[in-house]
Protein 1
Amino acid sequence: MSVMKTKEIMEIIPHRQPFLLIDTIEEMEEGKRAVGKKCVSYNEPFFAGHFPQEPVMPGVLIIEALAQVGAVAILSQPEWKGKTAYFAAIKEAKFKGKVVPGDVLMLETEIIKVKGPIGVGSAKATVDGKVVAQAELTFAIGSAQ
């Protein structure tokens, strides 16, 4: 059973369709880690051009989905309520498999370091238990203005 559905996710992070890339949060330890789920549908807008004859979810969007899961984990803490987590760096990104329509993408991000408004997350995406992408994500928390 999901810990958060789309409505609750949108109360924490500012992303909206078509750029909200997570459907649910399945597990969460506020400020420490979260596991999200994305049910990849053939109707995703990026599939129209990536690639029409062989739809594949762009790797950068998998990384973005991992970052959104991490943002839910960190921004769920009361001291960061109403803030936005911005990318500061992406390190060691590796893509190990394709994500295609019909896949259920599991997204896990663990916050491994926080110093003030800067933090680092270790992130991995899986389909059917197999790693399809992983990266170290650095974020900076700021106001949306």
Protein 2
Amino acid sequence: MKKIFFVFLLVGSVAAAEVIEKIVAVVNDEIITLSDINKYRSQLKKGKFLDETVLANKDKLLKDEDALIKHLIDEKIIDSAVKQMGLAMTVEKVEQEIESIARRNKISTGDLRSEIKKEGVSFSEYQNFVKQRLERQALIERAVTSKIKITDEEVQAYYLTKHKGPNAESYEYTLAHILISDKSGPDAAKKKTDDLEKRLRNGEGFESLAAQFSEDPNFTAGGFLGTFKSGEFLSELEAGVKNIPIGGLSAPVKTKLGYHILKVLNKKIISDPKFEAQKENIRNLLYKDAFSNQFNFWLEQERASAFVKINK
């Protein structure tokens, strides 16, 4: 427990007591004082020595003292959980982290000490700050982040909800077709195509009928047409096979070449280049939301079991 100091000022013959420290809140076996609040507010204004791991909205804390007190209470609750879980950091780990901070900033540890001193903070205070941050990170890793997993399916589902429409998914199709040219007239071509479709539906072999009747000038065995990705072939043909399963037949599809009956030899979802470009950003966005939800859920549980008293 922190000690509370009082200074007594004598004015004439009357003794007046001025309290220069005030307990604002009690959290488990720790206290938050008015000077703690003022010190933290000063750090917020400077933007220095703040643990971003647990800091959500700096501007709100500067404007709203109740929110600031609540935040400091949450920090005490987090630090209590660190003790309960036995996550205290050793001096060696703290020193390793300080050396790592210096390397990341491309300065020596001596220069780092000098920069800290310029900010009016003792090196021992900075060591305590680093120790506290490492401990909180360890706690969050165990209690929060270890429980978060963003799957590829979740990333793709999010992308598809934001890009609804005919091109929301990209496919690769391997197709065969029977082409009936409408050079002899559209009505005759349509009737011939309908007759062929009926024969196919009745079980006659696609490859055999394609060899007999297809009028594709580039005809290959089995009526093989080729392998195409979404957007790489005639839009009428793509629309005709989009909902057809592997091995299935399309209804007659009209294009400028005539009438086609298509057979889907293979079909698979492929990566949309636009999706690939956005995938990691989406994953980070989903992770951020999941982290916030999981952290708040964990913190609510800890608050419920903590002893908290705020002095107004």
